[in-house]
């Protein structure tokens, strides 16, 4: 009975969050967006991806992972990742098989941070992506829309009214409205957690998995300090670069699986939602 009441409460909260008024992309809703490129139209990268499967099982399974492509934004102004996959051996060139080669950083596209990403003690202790808790990476999750006129501050976190007991939350921000993950080039005016927003989450919620819709969970001006708060105790997992376009706010089953990269503090990750 208690579980049913919690689920109902979460659903009500999610619907309420979805009703936030969303300003037009490229507006002055965020102080760092002066002169930002208008993104009302769908960028070419998004159009190119339109032919790929984003829903399965008649819409029951939703892909929330970005395709790893050469023009993915990288974490620097205007930067892109460059080629990710190349065909090293090709049947078209006379070999008996096709063989692809993968070359990429561990922090690009849809990715996960291990505790050692910005905590040397955790890194020295061997807390790599292969030791991340798969139970935490898979289970019921709440997708919420954050206020669109701010970074994720303590005040913004408090306004979301996320109840105790919720362990996994995906935060959809103005980044999704602005199609930042579809742009060719990094944009450091993205929305993320401030230091006080991260601290409020740690102190006042039971959230242990934090998902967000751009390359870093932390706002640029709080890049180090917010990560330090999240990783002070190695019990929070950060999933970044999620594809949350056209997904309704609400409750889902989340399934995320990183690669077993021994010794790495980050990894590409495949995430899906199941209704």
Detailed description of the structure:
There is one protein chain. The chain has 275 residues and is α+β, with helices and mostly antiparallel strands. The protein has a single domain (2-20, 43-274), classed as 3-Layer(bba) Sandwich (Glucose Oxidase, domain 1). The chain is 20% helix and 20% strand. It has 7 helices and 11 strands. The chain has helices at residues 2-18, 44-49, 120-124, 154-159, 174-177, 195-204, 223-230, and strands at residues 55-56, 61-63, 85-89, 99-102, 111-113, 138-145, 168-172, 209-212, 237-240, 250-258, 266-274. A 7-stranded mixed barrel has the order 5-9-8-7-6-10-11. The chain has a two-stranded antiparallel sheet with strand order 3-4. α6 runs parallel beside α7. The longest helix has 17 residues, at 2-18. Mean pLDDT is 86; it is low at 8-44. One of its GO terms (biological process) is L-tryptophan catabolic process to kynurenine. Residues 1-18 form the signal peptide. Keywords: Extracellular matrix, Secreted, Signal.
